[in-house]
Amino acid sequence: MSDAFASAERGSRSRAPSEHNLTYPLIRVTVRPTIGLKQRMGNHMSTTAPDGVASTTRTTFSRSTRIARHIDADAATVWRLLTAAAEWPRWNSTVVSLDGQIALGSKIRLVSTLVPSRTFSLKVKEFEPNARLTFGDAISTRTYSLSGDAGGTRVEVVERIGGPFFPFFARLIPPFDENFEQFTADLKKAAEAAAT
Question: How many CA atoms lie within 13 A of 155 on its CB side?
Fold first, then answer.
């Protein structure tokens, strides 16, 4: 047995049986069980947020932002606003422009106030009238879900960004929480105005 492996064997005997240390030249690797991961992550685990308040959950390879908001308008009214691309800048203060047709399989071009210098090319991946709309690209997917809620509509927006290279560019992506809160507030205002 080589000195490196002998050292690793001696080190592993002095630790808990579920934790192993392997020593290679210039590299030390510690492997721990994943049981109890939720407790160790603490505030990074998702929680149920109040109406109209966004929450973000992070892992090594992804980030998800979620918000839900009650709107005093029916799903058809909300759906019309979500699917009229040319009208988005009129009621949505988080968008500079949205070009293209929002239909299943179509491509749209979005410029957000978060990064006004960049145009995002997105594909509409799901299109279920009055219920579900999803668009995204290779690394992100945003889904709008509509459901009946106390005489109105509950709108839930979830965006997941991730993939194997996520750790390399994660710091370059701005937080979405405030943007999501403003977007759903704008949607609520426009839908409720249209419903009266």
Answer: 32
Structural domains present in the chain: 1-33 (no CATH), 43-195 (3.30.530.20)
Place of tokens 């390399």: 168
- Dihedrals φ, ψ of 143, to 5°? -120, 135
Closest by CA position to 71, among listed 155, 2, 164, 141 = 155
pTM over 0.90: no
**11 touches 23 (CB < 8 A):** yes
What one-character DSSP code corresponds to residue 154? E
Please write the tens of the pLDDT for every residue from 160-181: 999 999 999 999 999 999 999 9
Q: Beta partners for 146? A: 155
- The angle that helices 75-83 and 177-195 make with each other, rounded to 10 degrees, is 120
What is the length of the chain? 196
Q: Check if the beta carbon of residue 97 is closer than 8 Å to that of residue 110.
A: yes
